[in-house]
Amino acid sequence: MNPLRVCEYVDYFLQPLSVLHPSYLKDTYDFISKVRGQRVKGTWYLITADVESLYTNMKIDLIIQSVKGIFLEHPDPDRNDFLVLELLRIILENNDFEFDGKFYLQICGIAMGRKFAPSCANIFLRKFDERAMNGFHIHPLLYGRFLNDIFGLWPGTLPELCEYENYLNNLFPGIKVKFTARKDIIEFLDTQVYKTTDTNGNCVLATKVYFKPTDTQQLLHRHSFLPRHTFQGIVKSQFIRFKRLSTTKWDFDQACTTLINVLTTRRYANCKLQKVKNYIWRNYDVTTLTDRRPARFPYTPGEPQKLPIVTFFDNFHSSLNR
């Protein structure tokens, strides 16, 4: 029996259920769609938290119990609940490894890299999220969680936030969180969320790109022996990402300046970078994720289609392509 295929089989049933809780955040873009433009009060705090060592602190019996519970809530006649739960139990209870010449058995948590680990983590924290959103006498607003990263708005005071943190840290054995609270701007995933004022004078949330201190910006060097379109794709994709994360043109320009400074040191032409940057801002529609420019060679019914010819990438074929 291939354990990787077994993990993939278990995740096939867990993954669709793991995204059903209301606090689920799929990715950065899903997060932005839920917070950008939201009206807030200037007195509210922007809060983030990290569930410490989530994968290794989830109790095995509670993992199986949480999966069993979601199976009961969402029955499926095509799913063999007993088989999936038994396979999950066998994998969790028999994770052994060798270190320094000795063999160990993991008795708590999920091994890093298991295919079903993210799905299990989301299912395991469903009850935690429910109590975090509704169990305390002050309810956080815009509460969302991406795996072990939590974001929210806190309408109370800082001492009350400390009480809330203590409340959460006593919900489940081994699950601990530590909150960070800011008044005006805070980092979450690869964005910075900040308060601003819209044209009507309302206080709303906006987002911009966040470069983590550990981000060394090690993008592909321009003199690497790779096809030209590879470098063009890297540059365009980065500018598109910046536009999707940036609320304003100023935010976009600030992020692009950082990127351009890095890329020019890696032998990218500054004039071409500026050209792509301006093109993306003017023409790329982040609401539909498409390029506004019409196709250069639109296909006309009845007209012979042009088929691409793919060659090897070596000196001979590079000359042939040219």
Secondary structure: helix percent:
40-55%
**Most strands sheet:** 4 strands, antiparallel
Number of E strands: 11
Order of helix and strand elements from N to C terminus: HHEHHHEEHHEEHEEEEHHHEEH
Structural class: alpha+beta
If you average the pLDDT, what whole number results? 89
State the end-to-end CA separation: 50 Å
What fraction of the residues are assigned to beta strands by DSSP? Answer: 15-25%
Shape: globular
Low-confidence stretches: 295-299
Rg from C-alpha positions?
25 Å
Into how many domains do the coordinates divide?
A: 2
What can you tell me about this protein's structure?
- The chain has 322 residues and is α+β, with helices and mostly antiparallel strands.
- The chain is built from twelve helices and eleven strands.
- A four-stranded antiparallel β-sheet has the order 4-5-1-6, with helices on both faces. Strands 7-8-9 form a three-stranded antiparallel β-sheet, sandwiched between helices.
- It is globular and about 60 Å long.
